[in-house]
Amino acid sequence: MASPLVSVPRYGESTLSDLLPAVLAGLTGGEDPLGLGLTGVRRVCVLLIDGLGALQLAARAEYAPMLTSMRAGTLTSTFPSTTATSLASLGTGSPPGRHGIVGYLTAVEGYDRPMNPLHWRLHGQAGGRSGGDGQAGGRSKSSRSDLLSTLVPEEFQPQPTVFERAAAAGIAVTRVAPSYQQESGLTRAVLRGGEFAASVSAGDLVARTVSALGRGDRSLVYSYWSELDLTGHVRGPSSDAWSHELRQVDSIVEAVAARLLADAALVVTADHGMVDVADRVDVDTTPALSQDVTMIAGEPRARHVFARSGAASDVADRWQATLGEDYLVIGRDDAIDRGWFGPVRPAVARTIGDVLALALGSGAVVRSGAEPNQSALLGHHGSLTKAEVRIPLLIARG
């Protein structure tokens, strides 16, 4: 039985992974499973606002008159509700159990440390080879360049992205995002395809998006804005700063919508919501949480815990007893059976923690020594609460 506080993604029906396939279907005359209403549309921009949860938007509607005036619906993010996993699902049209990016820090077979997919590098200090427990064993390379050559993004996720499929169908595809994303490992793995237009500011994002929408006979534009998420992490999603940044987002959307051609549509969505964290449990100062643990991945509100061989049940019991009733602690097989990751390939299953620990209230499991910067953030996401999982689906027509 699922906790009543948990909102499990409905992969294949109404999640972020279903969005781009539905848009592509609309552009190619196929069935529109999400009811996007793209009849007659030949140009679509999907604008993803990092960190714009549906619940947060509803609570700050006065700061976003344009967003709240658009035809509105909701989707769910992936699990975990985190940027790398959600963007991978958006770009591939697949759930995490297929594309293999299962967290902010993701275990990778053959390495004794988890990978940070956003930077395509291993996390933390290099360790030695592990024995036969969990994912570990073998290489321990720390630099981004080394990992790009030994864990080649296009081999890590070899299936064509939705952007590649759209380009193959004769659609002019453009991705508008900061320049550092152009050749990143994450982009190469799950967001590759079409042209890349680097943006340097809010105004530039608008200009490059509008220009890209005019390309070719049919066009698909993916545009990405990150500053709302950054503000939420550093100042908290309930802060005045977050509200004022939402107003900036609203102005971006208004500017793009005002310049849509008659055969164009703008679809605004997000990768996850966010919560203010009030209570922290520190793994690095709580011995019970380290006992029999070989590696910790994921993020503060959705931890993957890898256990010494034969100790997973004991680790789960200790974590649940230590964290208390505001957390849900379950085993890997249980999480897969509940559909959190969608259908799971065997190779991906081996990179999911033996134990998963989800925050259901305002807590977070931090690591002050191993993750000092992340541990100090005020806003977090990753779990399956409605505040983190529900994202907007907003549509404007030209």
Mean of residue pLDDT values:
93
CATH architecture of the largest domain, please?
3-Layer(aba) Sandwich
Task: State the major sheet.
Answer: 7 strands, mixed
Regions with little confidence, pLDDT below 50 for 5+ residues = 126-144
Describe the structure in your own words.
32% of the residues lie in helices and 21% in strands. It folds into 2 domains: 16-95 and 155-274 and 386-397, Alkaline Phosphatase, subunit A (3-Layer(aba) Sandwich); 98-151 and 277-380, Gyrase A, domain 2, CATH 3.30.1360.180. The model is unreliable at 126-144 (pLDDT under 50). With 398 residues, the chain is of the alpha/beta class. A 7-stranded mixed β-sheet has the order 2-17-8-1-7-5-6, with helices on both faces. A 4-stranded antiparallel β-sheet has the order 11-12-14-13. Pfam families: Phosphodiest (PF01663). Residues 125-137 have a biased composition (Gly residues).
